[in-house]
Amino acid sequence: MNSDRTLPARLSGAALDIGGTKIAAVRFENGEVAERLTEPTNRAMSGTDLVRSCEQLLLRLDAEPEGPLGVAATGRVTNSGLWSAVNTGTLPNIENLPLAEMLSGALARPVHVLNDAAAAAWAEARWGAAAEAASMVYVTISTGVGGGFVFGGTLLRSENGLAGHVGFMSARESDQICGCGRFGTVESVASGLAIAERAKALGHPVTTKEVFEQWRAGTPWAEELVHDSARTIADLGASLRAGLGLDCMVLGGSVGLSGGYHDLVASYLASEPSMFRIKTAIAAFRHDSPLIGALLFAEERPKGECT
Fold this sequence. Notes:
Strand order of the largest sheet: 3-2-1-4-8
Distance between the termini: 31 Å
CATH topology of the largest domain: Nucleotidyltransferase, domain 5
Structural class: alpha/beta
């Protein structure tokens, strides 16, 4: 697996990444980022107002109106482009929004929408850290935990939009009710939001970034939280290899890309029996993996189609 990749010069167009913490809009030209706009995600907004905010951000991009536009969105995206939150603690007001249709109508151009982790998986499998793997999972550990699978050059999608939501699988480290309604999930112990909430419960009302700073400084309570997260992701990787025979797991997201986190996950995987030690890598395109994958997906759709 190669974590040092470049984009093909032919990649041009616009992409939007709607996350639980921020929204990013990027214009690519000839395989390079030509323009980038970001703003915080207003979780209190209604779904319609949030989409309108996305529209305004895209309109500020100096993008070619006939070029492809791909959207990566956290949560559940059906094959027909309906967008819903799964963890309502992350985005409480998103339920069956026709995201592709709404953006397409406002911008007068075809729009193609994927789950953000699925989009990142597509980028990393096609051109990134897993380009040489026959099968892979991309796991984003950020505000929440999500995933995307690529098998034999095909991105796994499902009509109900749940494919890849590995954050809602069970985790032995968790004893909390997840925002999705399930008990004891990966997301409820490994995500950035969970790390900050668990720190607060221990009497440390700090951000996830500050937890990681304390971890690197050797603070015991922070070490416990970060190790619990990394151990949970390692356990997830071993379980996915056992169940699906995957070749590799690529880590992304603000937590997954934090310095030292990948190595910690790898150290826990090393304690697994050899047949379950899935290969791991850091996302080659870093925080841009969802944007690149969404644009690539849009570029490959038939002209005039909107999904």
